Amino acid sequence: MLNGKKKIMKLNEPSNVYHAMKSTPFILLLLMLSTTTYAQTDSSNITPTTFDCEIKTNGVYYANLDEDANIYIHFHQNDTVVTTSSIKDVDLASKFVNKKLGTGMLFGKYFTSDRTCSLRVRAKNEYSKVKMDGIIRDDKLVLTVVNITENTARDFVFQFHELKK
What we know:
Elements: H1 14-41, E1 59-64, E2 69-76, E3 80-87, H2 90-94, E4 106-113, E5 118-124, E6 129-137, E7 140-147, E8 152-162
Antiparallel strand pairs: 1-2, 1-8, 2-3, 3-4, 4-5, 5-6, 6-7, 7-8
């Protein structure tokens, strides 16, 4: 109301039609964004995926380091871990990656989260110190391995190899 008089907008006036057309794309954009945001955050439309998030202690995990060697990780009960690099022959190398044969091995602790299937490993010996962070997916580990001593990092996919009795 201006000065007690009602102002009525007439749609057939060119300036009002232009103004309405000018704001229509903006309103449509907001409408589309609000529905897509809801679709991305609505957890009711997501089928839960289940993975085995358990670390296996009856074998070793191994990943290709270079043409001559693999990296090996052997997890033990009570959250302890042994890791080293060794020859490509997984059967032979897996016999020596354990707590008893400590020369050259890195010893440490590991932490897991069942909610996120994440894994963190910290290990060291007198010559080296590493940390590994990543995820557990069934019989595989996807880890970023950081050699703190050498200040290097690399990503690896570890496969599981069960120890023969």
